[in-house]
Design brief:
This protein has one domain. The relative contact order is 0.16. By secondary structure, the protein is mainly alpha-helical. A hairpin with a 4-residue loop joins β4 and β5.
């Protein structure tokens, strides 16, 4: 495991003041990465809740085991919340180069204002677009794998276009 890359995930959690949910963290990293921010290099596959990275899951497990990130679970909902564990960890992460906010911080904060379902829809569309699906083919595939997000398709597609997630520079 690359500890430096794991610490970048911790930095994202620090910049956002915490992340509510594993799915949400996966979508945030996927979308920030899709804008070609070099701090995030995880590989993603299409999974039940959209793009998923085993590397990111392992990095998060490492950060929790190392006491850098605190994971709390609501037993009633099985919902996880991630925060940086204490002031020493915050100080350590924030003084790692660069000490100023990373280039992706504003993007991550803007994405974090969206609902998790919406992030799942946008992230899935970006993933499918990067697999060379377009227009009706993109919509058809999205609706096949995400029928529960049908009502979010149009808004998510427009958001991905408006925020340049679909630009040619973002093709992989």
């Amino acid at each position: 495991m690359d500890v430096v890359e794991a610490l970048r995930v911790a930095r994202l959690i620090l910049e956002l003041g915490g992340v509510d949910g594993r799915t949400r963290l996966q979508k945030l990293v996927h979308l920030v990465q899709s804008k070609r921010h070099p701090d995030f290099k995880q590989s993603f596959i299409l999974h039940h809740y959209g793009p998923f990275s085993r590397e990111l899951a392992a990095q998060l497990d490492y950060l929790c085991a190392a006491g850098i990130v605190e994971e709390t679970r609501d037993d009633d909902t099985a919902h996880y919340t991630y925060r940086i564990a204490g002031s020493e960890a915050k100080e350590y992460i924030s003084r790692k180069p660069p000490s100023e906010p990373p280039a992706w911080a504003d993007l991550a904060k803007a994405l974090d204002e969206q609902s998790t379902d919406f992030l799942e829809a946008v992230s899935t569309l970006v993933y499918l677009h990067n697999q060379k699906l377009r227009d009706q083919e993109l919509e058809k595939r999205f609706l096949e794998i995400k029928p529960h997000l049908k009502k979010k398709f149009g808004k998510a597609r427009d958001y991905a276009r408006d925020e340049s997630f679909f630009s040619q520079a973002n093709m992989s």
